[in-house]
Amino acid sequence: MKLDILAIGAHPDDVEMSCAGTIAKEIAKGKKVGILDLTRGELGTRGSAEIRDQEAAAAAKVLGVSVRHNLAEIVLCNAVDDRHIDHPKGSDLASNACFLSGLIKIETKENGEIQDPWRPKQVYHYIQWKDLIPDFVVDITGYQELKLKAVHAYKSQFFDPKSTEPMTPIATKNATDSMEYRDRNLGRLVGVHAAEGYTKERYLAVDSIFDLI
């Protein structure tokens, strides 16, 4: 069974911070979702790769994601522009891979078998540190608390007044609070409790104007 959504992040916790509400909502609807981390956070200031592995597993368990290597209808990936240089690089890598995977003359193999050309139906970019203007938002009312629980599974990375780790921008209480505030503000702008924003690479198309809410 293929995945419905594959969320890709440059680091463990990128996905949870930015689109975990969307993921949790779709999983509750029965969709199959996977998370792919491009690195283990080896160069991160706080924690270690081993700790991040444990935290990523805990966050995945909170959200109920189905982690496996497979195709996906929709790919969610890093912000196109952000404070951390790995984020736009991860964005480009994922986006370019989704394009190249559909070229007939690029031949790839899995277990010795030639793979068919394939592309996801859509590639969307979540928003991270910078307040980019979203092209659309997803209502995550009822799922923000679960999102924050998944974020806080990364105990080595986020605000802890007892921590002796070096301070980083995301380890401040303000950074943690801002995740909640931004979701609430995007929700306010569209008339719901909370929402997550995305930018897109192509025009969105709807069958009926009534599909827009």
Describe this structure in words.
It is a single chain. With 213 residues, the protein is of the alpha/beta class. The chain has one domain: LmbE-like (Rossmann fold). Helix content is 33%, strand content 17%. The chain has 5 helices and 8 strands, in the order βαβαβαββββααβ. It has a 6-stranded mixed beta sheet with strand order 2-1-3-6-8-7, with helices on both faces. Strands 4-5 form a two-stranded antiparallel ribbon. Helix 1 crosses helix 4. The protein is globular and about 55 Å long. The model has no long low-confidence stretch (mean pLDDT 92).
Question: What descriptive keywords fit this protein?
Answer:
Rossmann fold, 213 residues, six-stranded mixed beta sheet, alpha/beta, 5 helices
SSE map:
Blueprint: E1 3-9, H1 14-28, E2 33-37, H2 49-63, E3 72-77, H3 86-100, E4 109-110, E5 113-114, E6 122-126, E7 136-139, H4 144-151, H5 173-190, E8 195-200
Parallel strand pairs: 1-2, 1-3, 3-6
Antiparallel strand pairs: 4-5, 6-8, 7-8
